[in-house]
Specification:
With 308 residues, the protein is of the alpha/beta class. 36% of the residues lie in helices and 24% in strands. The strands form 3 sheets. The chain has a 9-stranded mixed β-sheet with strand order 6-4-1-10-11-12-13-14-15, sandwiched between helices. The chain has a 4-stranded mixed β-sheet with strand order 3-2-8-9. A hairpin with a 5-residue loop joins strand 13 (220-224) and strand 14. The longest helix is centred in the C-terminal third of the chain and has 16 residues, at 272-287.
Length: 308
């Protein structure tokens, strides 16, 4: 495959429990539990594949039932998984989330050790031809610092545009040495603080964080603000886009959809503000789904949501 999108990051099984009533600590709360495929990198890859983009995924899964589910579902979505490492000595990554009765995250636990352990600099370098033929690179922060160094070195060598998802506030600092290499980064408020030191409390401080990220070398910086939308900045422009008014079924995966939507817009030469609006549209569709990636995502639905 040539002129593909190269996505590097986690692929996992997500288990999410949403309470039917207020959660009481120390006891069981009635609700609904769902299991779906996830992982930030894999989620971004699926969103882009559903939008018709050719996507190659670099990730690792265990040689277990969970890994086979991840690979089968990704292939059915149109993702090229031929370069995903399958290893019998590791378990497939997993994510466990507890949501309150409104769909907001209460707490989560992730088991992503397979990624920094198996997606090594050597693993990446052996697949350097994928960088040579890529039109764009997207990665999450579930990777070791050494592996990230190799990824960005290859991106520079082959002149590949690079975008990144900070993933969590704990992992976001791994991107700090590479901010000047990034065309796009889209942190939430906690991740933005971890990346640039600006405490995000409101729209004004979020914009200050986005502008500081641009000052640190990022071409397009987006800081998400949940129900109040997001702000974005480049060296020439900045703005605020409100969140779409929609029923929130599950917040999981909305940030990944946002990143994918913006990447899709940039790939198709949309102006920055329109690309960001596509990301907001993709996130809005995802908020309405119980799955981590909206299974009915399509270009038509993306544009219909955008027009609302």
């Amino acid at each position: 495959m040539t002129d593909h999108l190269l996505v590097i990051g986690a692929a996992s099984i997500d288990t999410k429990g949403r309470a039917d009533q207020a959660i009481q600590l120390g006891t069981s709360t009635p609700g609904a539990i769902r299991v779906s495929v996830g992982g930030v990198g894999r989620n971004i890859a699926e969103n882009l594949a559903r939008l018709g983009e050719p996507v190659v995924l670099l990730s690792a899964v265990g040689d277990d039932d969970a890994g086979r589910v991840v690979l089968r579902q990704a292939a059915e979505c149109g993702i090229d998984v031929s370069h995903v490492l399958v290893d019998a000595g590791h378990r497939t990554a997993a994510y466990l989330a507890v949501l309150d009765e409104t769909g907001n995250l209460v707490m989560s636990v992730d088991d992503m050790g397979i990624n920094p352990e198996l997606i090594t600099p050597e693993f990446i370098y052996r697949r350097r031809a994928l960088f040579r033929d890529a039109c764009m690179l997207v990665l999450d922060a579930n990777l070791s610092p050494a592996t990230m160094q190799t990824i960005f070195r290859l991106a520079r060598k082959y002149d590949v545009v690079a975008c990144a998802d900070p993933t969590t506030a704990t992992l976001a600092p791994r991107l700090l040495p590479h901010l000047p290499d990034l065309t796009l980064v889209a942190p939430n408020s906690a991740e933005a603080e971890a990346l640039c030191g600006v405490v995000v409390r409101d729209r004004e401080t979020a914009l200050a964080a986005a502008q500081k990220l641009v000052g640190l070398g990022v071409r397009i910086a987006i800081v998400t603000l949940g129900a109040t939308g997001l702000v974005y900045a480049t060296s020439q422009e900045s703005g605020h886009i409100p969140a779409l008014q929609t029923e929130i079924v599950d917040l999981t995966g909305a940030g990944d959809a946002l990143t994918a939507g913006v990447v899709f817009g940039l790939l198709n030469d949309f102006p920055v503000d329109e690309a960001v609006r596509l990301g907001v549209s993709a996130a809005g569709l995802t908020l309405q789904c119980r799955e981590t990636v909206c299974p009915t995502l399509s270009l038509d639905r993306l544009y219909d949501q955008l027009a609302i």
